[in-house]
Inverse folding.
């Protein structure tokens, strides 16, 4: 990976980029109390053009964070509530017959946006979920016999409720693997919740207005800067070793994990780890990746890419449990 370092980021570029990201994070924080990790991960996803799956109980500001971030960069935002009666055309669009012209015209669906919030994505059947596959991977949508490019940036933020299983449909593995990260959104602290309550009880405050602080054009420049963040060859080998350890734990001094893991992380996990680590390093104001960047984001990148056995389910072992042991076992360069 050292061969990819065609142009070194300068200290001035890093400082300027870090300042822009700080303004974006500060603007989102004006409207969203807490959830700083969620905000940071969504910023990284935006910088590396990846999609995010959010898992958490209702009322944790998942929708608010995505909508606020879209406003802060003056990007378009659309929300689709996934339900069992939803059709693929309700997302991608369809052909409408024009009697005057005697031909069919394409009517784009809500997927043609910068930020698409797929709310409770597991409430729609697989045929609807799969309608997003082409959009997420190819960044285009086929309607009839023509393909249409999606706007840039295009980020899917999907949510699912972990406590309800009745009337839900598990996401296909092929779709889950296309999400750059899966974030587990937790409850706010007592102080954060008290601050939220204070805002709600003060009728004079109302909804916090969000200003554009980073133009979309500037975000594109930041994306190109993140792509130039350096990943040393030793870090690249470390990333590969981490992913390989989830597939064949016995070869990495973790034989007790072998009966618990049916399938390890895919090659997309290797690429995603490198991309997200670059974005994380950029957020920290560095032009190079360090092992701590990889370790901090490893669970978010790989927890949804590991399939466990029935034995693991019986022992109540989670992918996060597996990843903690992998991170502790694989030597750090």
């Amino acid at each position: 990976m050292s061969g990819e370092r065609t142009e070194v980021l300068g200290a001035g570029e890093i400082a300027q980029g870090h300042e822009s990201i700080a303004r974006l994070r500060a603007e989102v924080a004006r409207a969203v109390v807490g959830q700083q990790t969620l905000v940071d991960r969504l910023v990284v996803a935006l910088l590396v053009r990846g999609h995010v799956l959010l898992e958490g109980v209702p009322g944790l500001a998942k929708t608010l964070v995505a909508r606020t971030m879209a406003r802060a960069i003056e990007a378009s935002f659309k929300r689709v509530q996934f339900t069992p009666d939803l059709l693929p055309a309700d997302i991608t669009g369809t052909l409408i017959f024009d009697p005057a012209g005697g031909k069919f015209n394409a009517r784009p669906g809500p997927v043609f946006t910068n930020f698409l919030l797929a709310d409770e994505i597991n409430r729609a059947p697989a045929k609807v979920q799969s309608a997003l596959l082409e959009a997420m991977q190819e960044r285009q949508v086929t309607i009839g016999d023509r393909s249409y490019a999606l706007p840039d940036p295009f980020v899917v933020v999907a949510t699912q409720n972990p406590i309800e299983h009745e009337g839900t449909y598990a996401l296909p593995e092929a779709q889950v693997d296309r999400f750059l990260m899966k974030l587990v959104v937790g409850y706010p602290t007592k102080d954060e919740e008290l601050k939220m309550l204070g805002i709600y009880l003060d009728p004079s405050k109302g909804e916090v207005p969000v200003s554009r602080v980073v133009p979309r054009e500037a975000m594109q420049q930041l994306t190109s800067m993140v792509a130039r963040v350096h990943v040393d060859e030793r870090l690249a080998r470390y990333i590969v070793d981490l992913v390989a350890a989830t597939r064949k734990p016995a070869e990495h001094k973790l034989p007790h994990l072998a009966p618990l893991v049916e399938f390890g992380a895919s090659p997309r996990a290797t690429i995603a780890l490198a991309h997200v680590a670059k974005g994380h390093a950029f957020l920290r104001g560095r032009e190079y990746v360090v092992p701590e960047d990889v370790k901090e984001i490893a669970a978010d990148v790989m927890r949804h890419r590991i399939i466990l056995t029935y034995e693991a389910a019986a022992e109540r072992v989670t992918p996060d449990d597996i990843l903690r042991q992998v991170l502790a076992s694989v030597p750090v360069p």
Remarks:
- Residues 1-6 have pLDDT under 50 and may be disordered.
- The domain at 16-222 is CATH 3.40.50.300 (Rossmann fold).
- The first strand starts at residue 52 and ends at 55.
- The chain has 14 helices and eleven strands.
